[in-house]
Amino acid sequence: MKKVLIITTISGFLSQFEMNDVDILKDLGCELHYASNFHNPVYESDQGELKKKGIKLYQIEIEKTPIHLAHNIKAFFQICHIIRTGQIELLHCHNPIGGVLGRLAAFFCRGQKIQVIYTAHGFHFYEGAPWMNWLLFFPVEALLARVTDCLITINKEDYKRASLFRLRKKKSLRVQIPGVGVRTERFRKEPGRRKIMRDRLGIGEEVFYILSVGELNRNKNHEVILRAIAEIGNPQIHYGVCGKGERAEHLSRLAEELGISGQFTLFGFRRDIPDMLQCADCFAFPSKREGLGIAAIEAMAGGIPLITSDCRGTREYMEDGVTGYVCRSGSVKEYAGAITRMMEDKEGRKRMGITCTERARRFDLSETDKIMRRVYRKMTDEVLAAE
Fold first, then answer.
1. Closest C-alpha to 209, from 194, 223, 188, 221
2. Residue 6 pairs with which residues in a beta bridge?
3. pTM of the shown model
4. Helix, coil or strand: residue 260
5. Cα angle vertex 387, ends 384, 103, to 5°?
6. How far is residue 4's CA from residue 306's CA, in Å, rounded to a whole number?
7. What is the rounded CA–CA span in Å between residue 79 and residue 101?
8. 170, 275, 320, 341: which could join 326 in a potential S-S bond, CB 3.0 to 4.6 Å?
9. Is the pLDDT of residue 49 over 90?
10. Is 153 within 8 Å of 159 (Cβ atoms)?
């Protein structure tokens, strides 16, 4: 059996986004190993379920940010040990630090002739990024590309950047996928479900309900929506956020300071996002940067019009006035205007929702699976050829 190691920084990432890749690899007869920091889930993860699928799990001390140098150095040596003792033949790494440590470890264990795949879920250097990001991350990615056999990106801008890098071999793969894929049928609107969910959540039919889904961190920028709602001053607007993270207390305090605490609900991590979307009038996605934005595409699949920031990820599916409204990420005034226009134009919301449903089909999981199955088949065939 071909032995494959998947590395992610956040342990729940595999369960949340990559289980179809697991199924593809198992179909190809691979033995699966998974290394991550299980003390840093962010997304819920059931280790028991992963073990039932025959995946061998490894706790490593990998951290999301480079400043945790001691932890990441330890993680590097842990990955090297897993590669050697597990006799790993194919490595697939995700997330920036996972991509760095995984590819470095593969290079130092190069005697084992490991095939390396890296999925970039959003380069830290992008149009409009701080110059420090370009100074630090661009050279690192350019260098590590030379030990990469397949580089996968999820948006056009990153794919264009990736074309500048020299990969390990002339026949190495550069691939763009439509994100990790969305099961669009899960998010289709169901007649009557809106009222059921609104009753359950205590949201009146007269309320204009805005929903966001995502980790509570600075980049997701939920703060701008709170400030926009405070500026509008309409008590019939309510904002709900599904997710957990370091900014939860800050957002609650801010809502209180702005005098809109009664118009704001933090739901924490939810497993029923398709149901939560059923009762939303629009979906807010104000991130400062995104590789793509699966949460927004899930909302589109449910026919929910969007209010988003203008960043490389949202440009893959957003069209101002067609699928929703696009704002500058830091502009409270623009978001307030977008919310007001969306709230006042019920027919416009319906029209945008129909377009959103149609556009979301481009990002269906079936489209991603077609590409990933070809990638894995080619990479595993090369593993066999090297034996």
1. 194
2. 34, 92
3. 0.89
4. coil
5. 80
6. 38
7. 8
8. 320
9. no
10. yes
In this predicted model, what pLDDT tens digit does every residue of 250-264 receive, in sequence order?
999 999 999 999 999
Q: Domains in the chain, ordered, with CATH?
A: 2-181+365-386 (3.40.50.2000), 184-362 (3.40.50.2000)
Under 8 Å between Cβ of 121 and 155: no
Q: Cα separation of 144 and 96, whole Å?
A: 11
List, for residues 56-112, the tens digit of each pLDDT value: 999 999 998 888 999 999 999 999 999 999 999 999 999 999 999 999 999 999 877
What is the strand order of the sheet 324-327 is part of?
264-268, 237-242, 208-213, 282-285, 306-309, 324-327
- What are the two backbone dihedrals, phi and then psi, of residue 71, each rounded to the nearest 5 degrees? -65, -40
Contacts of 135 (CB under 8 A, 6+ apart): none
Please give the pLDDT value at position 128: 87
30 Rama sector, left if φ>0, alpha if ψ -120 to 50, beta otherwise: beta
